[in-house]
Amino acid sequence: MAGHSKWANIQHRKGRQDAKRGKLWTKIIREITVAARAGGADPDSNPRLRMAWDKATDANMPKDNIQRAIARGAGGADGDNYEEARYEGYGVGGAAVIVDCTTDNRTRTAAEVRHAFTKNGGNLGTPGSVEFMFKHCGQFLFAPGNSEEKIMEAALDAGAEDVVSDDEGGIEVICAPGSYPAVRQALAAAGLKAEVDGVVMKALNETELTGDDALKMQKLLDVLEDLDDVQDVYTNVVFDEAQ
């Protein structure tokens, strides 16, 4: 795709998300609360909670905050009653979008997500309308310059499914969601730090947008990510490097 750099897109997206870190702790606390309620308060026996804990640590959240969120989830304290909700839709140019939320009011959240789509050139779809275009998996993205051999050895020994390098020299590690904690731990033990990692919905095919369409699509993604109930937004869109 002319003008399309995977790493330019990753850095662009990461930079925009970093600029919104004021809301990051709130989102992570909700994630911890839901994980603790679903699987218990022990991160050693609750992989989802372990992932949320690691995310909180990476975001420099104090341990006291983490433990309070776990206590709320495991004990149902403070009246918190968050549940998960997924919304699927189409953005500009037919680009696929998945919006994962934690909410204490599904009616409010659905209305806010629908409004974001309709006001920014997209439309909310039905459950399953775009999910088939994505793969649920653990993903680690390493910037160009890392040792593919070292990454491959650590990742595959820990249960990763695949290690792939791209034309720019970047390296991607894919694993089953349940293997993510073990692979992350193995990579860290080998002194390897991914640029981006997590359990994600990975797009199976990409839609490239340029010019005004790219700007409109970026606005839609920004509006969705700014909603209080939104945890993650996944899309198959990539932007021309000029954007």
CATH-assigned homologous superfamily of the largest domain: YebC, transcriptional regulation domain
Based on CA inertia axes, which overall geometry fits? globular
Strands, total number: 10
- The CATH topology of the largest domain, please? Alpha-Beta Plaits
Largest sheet: 4 strands, antiparallel
Order of helices and strands: HHHHEEHEEHEEHEEHEE
Give the number of helices: 8
Radius of gyration: 18 Å
Sheet with the most strands: spatial strand order: 3-1-2-9
Terminal CA distance reads: 14 Å
Query: In terms of quaternary structure, what is this?
Result: single chain
Q: Structural class given helices, strands, pairing?
A: alpha+beta
| Whole-number total of structural domains | 3
CATH architecture of the largest domain: 2-Layer Sandwich
**Percentage of β-strand residues:** 15-25%
Low-confidence stretches: none
Give structural notes.
- By secondary structure, the chain is an alpha+beta fold.
- It folds into three domains: 6-79, Orthogonal Bundle (Arc Repressor Mutant, subunit A); 85-131 and 205-236, YebC, transcriptional regulation domain (Alpha-Beta Plaits), CATH 3.30.70.980; 144-194, Alpha-Beta Plaits, CATH 3.30.70.980.
- Helices cover 43% and strands 23% of the residues.
- It has eight helices and ten strands.
- The chain has helices at residues 6-18, 24-39, 47-58, 63-75, 106-119, 148-157, 180-189, 211-226, and strands at residues 83-90, 96-103, 123-124, 134-142, 162-165, 171-175, 196-203, 207-209, 230-235, 237-239.
- The strands form three sheets. It has a four-stranded antiparallel sheet with strand order 3-1-2-9. It has a four-stranded antiparallel sheet with strand order 5-6-4-7. A two-stranded parallel sheet has the order 8-10.
- A hairpin with a 5-residue loop joins strand 5 (162-165) and strand 6.
- The radius of gyration is 18 Å and the shape is globular.
- The relative contact order is 0.17.
- The model has no long low-confidence stretch (mean pLDDT 89).
